Description:
Radius of gyration: 13 Å
Shape: globular
Distance between the termini: 13 Å
CATH topology: Rossmann fold
Number of helices: 5
Strand order of the largest sheet: 2-1-3-6-7
Number of domains: 1
Order of helices and strands: HEHEHEEEHEEH
CATH class: Alpha Beta
Number of strands: 7
CATH architecture: 3-Layer(aba) Sandwich
Oligomer: single chain
Largest sheet: 5 strands, parallel
Structural class: alpha/beta
CATH superfamily: Response regulator
Helix content: 40-55%
Amino acid sequence: xxxxxxxxxxxxxxxxxxxxxxxxxxxxxxxxxxxxxxxxxxxxxxxxxxxxxxxxxxxxxxxxxxxxxxxxxxxxxxxxxxxxxxxxxxxxxxxxxxxxxxxxxxxxxxxxxxxxxxxxx
Length: 121
């Protein structure tokens, strides 16, 4: 699983500081180059504009009361696979999107497994 993540550039969009740091640490330990964590839609879009070769992303659905749909749309335009993360119910995800969903609180192994599946596709 880590071999699919190692050497890849992953965007982390998460507004909870401790969770963002945890994702950064775990993904870095797996050998990924981590962009972020971005706590706002604006920051995530800035990182995407400045970055080259983003391979995948983990995207919190709700960033301080602001939905991350603009980031999801930009990732789709770029052809970058992503996974949504949410502590909310099924209604939190736009029904037109086909991205996988991680329910918070999630297991870090589940995050790594989901990202590895995205990268292998």
